[in-house]
Every structure is written in structure tokens, then in C-alpha cells.
Write a structure and sequence with these properties.
The chain has 13 helices and 14 strands. The chain has 307 residues and is an alpha+beta fold. A three-stranded antiparallel beta sheet has the order 5-4-14, with no helix packed on it. A three-stranded antiparallel beta sheet has the order 7-11-12, with no helix packed on it.
Length: 307
């Protein structure tokens, strides 16, 4: 049995390389099938399948643009709400994955007129969220269900694919956490699960897949491997400082799933120890501290985009 979790529901929809790229390009203003296909170099059948999935899940809606032929795809309210997830992944990638270089994209918050960084904060006290300062308890949607067997064992995030066309801190973040198993292993880490056998029990994951994902997560710097036991022949997997910073995009994804996929019954309630309040994560402008909305942003690129 597996605990109910809004993060997993969100992962099933958005953590696929092609799906992510399509949603990202929609935020950059791409609307037509032909432009998605031309911009991404995606096989037409693959694009058709992913667009159908995104419309079925009410993330995109089909419409028409005045004066243009053919169908156009527009972000719905639910789709626009994924912008916070993109920003929180960008926050992580800009901090940890630029290797000292300038971030690929600089946000301009048009509400205050300043360039800014996205910052994930508590909705109640507006202080930045840190994993060690948050506790959780069961929410109204808490419970357990049988393991779902539809998870794919293959890695779904192709590193070369994810940075196709444009460099992107969000894509770099998904190169680490973007396949479903890796994401769920990280989720269990935040629930306090550290040992191999515990992860198998909690996730119903095959041992070879778990070994592969843990190796990748250690190599990427998310976990460190520590010996334990009388003989020191067993290992625990504990978050590094970098790994702990994945908590922010994790709970932003959870908030999206709570809002759109949980029928008003979130499985978990988060409490911020600093202000002693239940909270939801917000992604705000580092300058004015106001939430960043998709229609209130512009951007500067540090690269040249080829059409």
C-alpha cells in the first residue's frame, strides 16, 4: 500500500520530457501545432499524443486566434497555475546547476518593474521556506491505496532532449529529478525514509531500479551515502544541502496537486515552525515580495533563440 500524495498525481501528468517542453513553450507564447513541432523538433505523432493528454487533463484548451488558420492551444487556469512549479524548479536550477555561469533566463516582474529571482515562501509569514523548518500531519485526504503499476521503469527525462532549443534552469533541474521513480524516492526522503529496504517497502520499486536511481541521485549531489550498523556494511541515504533545496519545488508541485487533483481534500497539511502556522507555498518576486503570475512577467535571455 502507498500513501495518498498530491505530488505523485502531479508527477504523473507533468514529469515527462516532451510534456514539460510543450508546457514550457506554451508559457513562452507558442500556440500552434506547427510552431510546437518546428520549435521542438518533436515527432508529429508524439506531439499529437502529448497535446491530447494536456487537453484531456485541462492544462491546455483548443481555441482559435483571430486571423489565423488552424487550431491553437491555450493554457487554462489550471495550466497557468503550473507557472509556480516552473519558477520553483528555476529557483533550484539557478542556485545549484549553472556552474557559476549567468542563469539562462532573467525574469522581469512587470508588476514592480524589476528583474527578480523567484523565491518560495510561506503564505502566512512570507519568509523563505526551508525543509527543516516545516512539519506535516495528515490532511482530510490522507490514506493509503494499492501501488499503481503504471509507473515506467525507464528514465523519462532525456538530458539532451530537455535542453533542446533553449538552455533552461528548469530543464536542468528535471534532468536530476524528472523521472518518476527519482522524484518519488526524493519524496520518501522528505518523509524520513533513508534506507534501501524501507524504500522498497514504501514504493513497491524493483531492487535494480532503486539501485540505479539511488546511484544517480548520489552522483548528482542530491543524496550522500552514509554507513550504519554494527559492521558498517549497510547504508543510509541522506540529503545534501543541495538535496534539501528540492523541498521547495516538491511542495509547490504538491500545492498544485492539492488544488486541482484532490477534490478539496489534500492528503497533507504543512506547518511552518517559524511562524507556527499552517501554510501553502507561494513563489514570490525577490524584489517586491508579491506572488509572480505568468501574465505579469517578461524575461531577458542570455542566449540567442533560433526559430
Amino acid at each position: 500500500m502507498e500513501r495518498h500524495c498530491s505530488v505523485r498525481k502531479t508527477v504523473e501528468i507533468v514529469l515527462d520530457s516532451w510534456t514539460f517542453l510543450i508546457v514550457r513553450e506554451a508559457f513562452f507564447g507558442v500556440r500552434s501545432f506547427e510552431k510546437f513541432q518546428r520549435r521542438l523538433g518533436i515527432p508529429r505523432q508524439t506531439l499529437s499524443t502529448r497535446l491530447s493528454m494536456l487537453t484531456d487533463n485541462d492544462i491546455l484548451v483548443i481555441g482559435a486566434r483571430p486571423g489565423e488558420r488552424g487550431k491553437s492551444y491555450f493554457l487554462t487556469k489550471r495550466g497557468k497555475d503550473l507557472f509556480s512549479t516552473m519558477l520553483s524548479l528555476m529557483e533550484f536550477g539557478d542556485k545549484w546547476l549553472t556552474q557559476g555561469a549567468e542563469p539562462p533566463l532573467k525574469l522581469i516582474h512587470t508588476t514592480c518593474g524589476h528583474t527578480c529571482d523567484p523565491v518560495t515562501v510561506c503564505s502566512e509569514c512570507h519568509e523563505p521556506i526551508k525543509a527543516r523548518e516545516v512539519s506535516f500531519r495528515d490532511g482530510p485526504g490522507a490514506g493509503y491505496s494499492p501501488y499503481e503499476v503504471k509507473l515506467k521503469s525507464r528514465r523519462s527525462s532525456d538530458p539532451a532532449l530537455l535542453e533542446r532549443v533553449r538552455p533552461c534552469s528548469v530543464a536542468r533541474s528535471l534532468q536530476i529529478i524528472g523521472d518518476r521513480w527519482s522524484f518519488l524516492i526524493i519524496r520518501e526522503g522528505f518523509f524520513g525514509v533513508r534506507r534501501f529496504d524501507e524504500m522498497i517497502e514504501k514504493l513497491g520499486i524493483a531492487t535494480n531500479i532503486l539501485t540505479d536511481r539511488l546511484t544517480r541521485l548520489v552522483e548528482s549531489g542530491v543524496f550522500r551515502k552514509e554507513r550504519y550498523g554494527a559492521n558498517g556494511d549497510r547504508f543510509e541515504y541522506r540529503f545534501t544541502e543541495m538535496g534539501r533545496d528540492l523541498y521547495q519545488p516538491m511542495i509547490v508541485m504538491m500545492r498544485w496537486g492539492d488544488r486541482w487533483l484532490s477534490d478539496g481534500k489534500p492528503p497533507l497539511t504543512l506547518r511552518h515552525r517559524l511562524c507556527n502556522s499552517d501554510f501553502a507555498p507561494l513563489v514570490v518576486c525577490s524584489h517586491c515580495k508579491q506572488p509572480i503570475m505568468a501574465n505579469e512577467t517578461d524575461y531577458e535571455l542570455s542566449y540567442t533563440l533560433e526559430e
